[in-house]
Structure formats: C-alpha cells, structure tokens
C-alpha cells in the first residue's frame, strides 16, 4: 500500500507540478518588492475602441489555419468595412515586385488588413471582351453576371489565397483577382471580394456547386462572415449533358480545346501544382513564380463565361 501511495503521489506531481516561486501573481493588496518592476498581472487591461465593430482590431492570424474573427465582428460582415477604390494605395516595389503594369495592381485595405487587387486585361487571355459580354448577356436574363474561380492551398480544411472574379457588363468583361500575398491576408481578400458577390444577380462557376462555393462558404464561416446567396449556375453539369462523354472529356481545359478551339500555353500551371507554387511564392516573394497561376485563373474565368454563352437555351 505504501508503494501504491508513493506511486500516486509521484504521478500527481508529474501531472500537476508545483509552480516555481514568483510564477503566481501576488496576493491582493500585497506590495511589490521595491527592486522589481510591476508584475504583468498589474498592467491595465487594453481598452477596446468604442463604436462600429469594424473599428475593432482583428484577431492575429497565423501562417496556416487562421483563427476565427473576434466576437465583435460576428454581427457585421467583413465586407462592410471595404474601403472605396479611391482609398487604395498604388503598389510600390516595396509591397510587390514587378507586377505587370497592365494588371493595374493595387493594395486594398479592409478591416482585416491588406490584400492585393489585380485586373489582368481580359483580351490577353480569352476572346474579345465586348463580343463575350454580348454573348453572355444574351444568354442570361439577369445582370450583372459574375463568374467565380478560387485558387486554394488544398482540397479540404485549407486556406484560399486567390478569389478570381469576372464581372460581365453590357459592353465588356472586367477581371478582378483578389490575392493574399501571404496566408495572413486571406481574410482581407475575402472581405474585399464580398461586395462584388453581393452585387451579383447571377453567379457562374465551373464545378462551383461541388467545390468553389462550399469551399468559400467554409472559409467565410471560419471568419464568422456570412456569404450572400445569388442565383448560382454551375456550368459543368450542362456541359456534360451537351458535350460530355460520360464523366470523361469534360475538364475545363478539355472543353476549351474541343468546343472553343483554344489551347492553353505551355507554361499553364496544372491545378495539382498550384498549392506548391504559391508556397514557393510566399517563401521567395518572386512574382514571376505566381504569374502563371494568376493567368491560369483568368483563363478559367473567361472560359467558364464563354462555355456558358455557347450552351443551348
């Protein structure tokens, strides 16, 4: 029995070790020694600014799976804090390196921090924008039509780093790529893209009902932010019914080649390699590493729009 008591005592000591002297805060009313600085327990609590929850500081973000939004932001969508485009600061060499001038890169500020807005010229990655806009608006009875395509760091429970949008007006197509230059900027990219999604009267995706929209919803829930619910058309099922051969031959790049008679360039990045490419970009800051990924996203958006315009009514 004595041995058993001794074993239990040692086990309790291992699980609940006695804190070293000075670890615990002083008892209430006890004076600090004159030769020691005030204890951390005596420092005043930080004062949170009053007013709109958007002014509350965001929770710190890690380099992998990001923490949820602070409680104050639960009653407000992060998109409400999106600053007007006039407040966006132009990119400098210090904040991004060698972005193409034609992409009109801008650093955009939100209540969650900064992200990068890129606007690649659509005519460099697809058909004539005016012709495409006419075809899409003729096929759709609502406007504006917005195409969505995500680039992520994995298939499940992983951050996203790029929200690609293509907004169709009556006369043209405008591309907007919201980029998190590091994983800490993911919530800012989401906050910046939300106003565009909320303004959409019809959302177009390719496999978006299965992947893009559930993934975006999961990330929005992670940051305690609600997504809008625009009418959503996933082009993939209709493409399978119209041009497919069962489940084969209906990948986006295959349909682009067979139906649109357009082939991707040799430097196009396969989807499976995109997470590793982004990781290399974050580690090195080399814009040239990420540029093929951004061009891949722009082509995916424009191809989705063009396939939609070619579907039978």
Beta-strand percentage?
Answer: 5-15%
CATH architecture: 2-Layer Sandwich
CATH topology: Nucleotidyltransferase, domain 5
CATH class: Alpha Beta
* Total domain units: 1
Radius of gyration: 26 Å
Specify the overall morphology: globular
Mean pLDDT: 77
How would you describe what is shown here?
By secondary structure, this protein is of the alpha+beta class. The protein has eight helices and eight strands. It has a single domain, classed as Nucleotidyltransferase, domain 5. Helices cover 34% and strands 14% of the residues. It has an eight-stranded mixed sheet with strand order 1-2-3-6-5-4-7-8, sandwiched between helices. Strand 4 and strand 5 form a beta hairpin. Helix 6 packs across helix 8 and helix 7 packs antiparallel against helix 8. About 26% of the residues have low confidence.
């Amino acid at each position: 029995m004595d041995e058993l008591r001794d074993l239990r005592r040692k086990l309790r000591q291992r699980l609940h070790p006695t804190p070293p002297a000075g670890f615990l805060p002083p008892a209430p009313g006890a004076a600090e020694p004159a030769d020691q600085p005030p204890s951390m327990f005596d420092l005043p609590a930080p004062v949170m600014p009053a007013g709109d929850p958007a002014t509350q500081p965001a929770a710190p973000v890690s380099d992998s799976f990001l923490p949820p939004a602070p409680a104050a932001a639960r009653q407000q969508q992060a998109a409400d804090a999106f600053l007007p485009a006039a407040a966006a600061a132009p990119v400098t060499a210090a904040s991004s390196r060698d972005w193409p001038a034609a992409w009109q890169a801008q650093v955009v500020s939100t209540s969650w921090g900064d992200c990068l807005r890129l606007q690649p010229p659509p005519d460099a990655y697809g058909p004539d924008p005016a012709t495409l806009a006419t075809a899409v608006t003729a096929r759709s009875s609502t406007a504006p039509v917005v195409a969505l395509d995500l680039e992520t760091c994995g298939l499940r429970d992983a951050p996203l780093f790029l929200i690609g949008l293509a907004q169709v007006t009556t006369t043209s197509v405008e591309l907007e790529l919201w980029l998190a230059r590091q994983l800490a900027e993911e919530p800012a990219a989401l906050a910046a893209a939300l106003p565009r999604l909320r303004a959409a009267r019809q959302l177009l995706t390719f496999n978006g009902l299965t992947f893009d929209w559930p993934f975006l919803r999961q990330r929005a829930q992670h940051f305690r932010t609600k997504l809008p619910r625009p009418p959503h058309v996933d082009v993939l099922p209709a493409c399978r019914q119209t041009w497919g051969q069962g489940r084969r031959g209906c990948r986006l790049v295959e349909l682009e080649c067979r139906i649109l008679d357009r082939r991707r360039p040799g430097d196009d990045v396969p989807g499976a390699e995109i997470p590793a490419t982004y990781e290399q970009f974050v580690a090195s800051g080399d814009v040239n590493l990420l540029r093929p990924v951004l061009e891949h996203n722009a082509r995916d958006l424009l191809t989705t729009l063009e396939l939609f315009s070619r579907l039978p009514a």
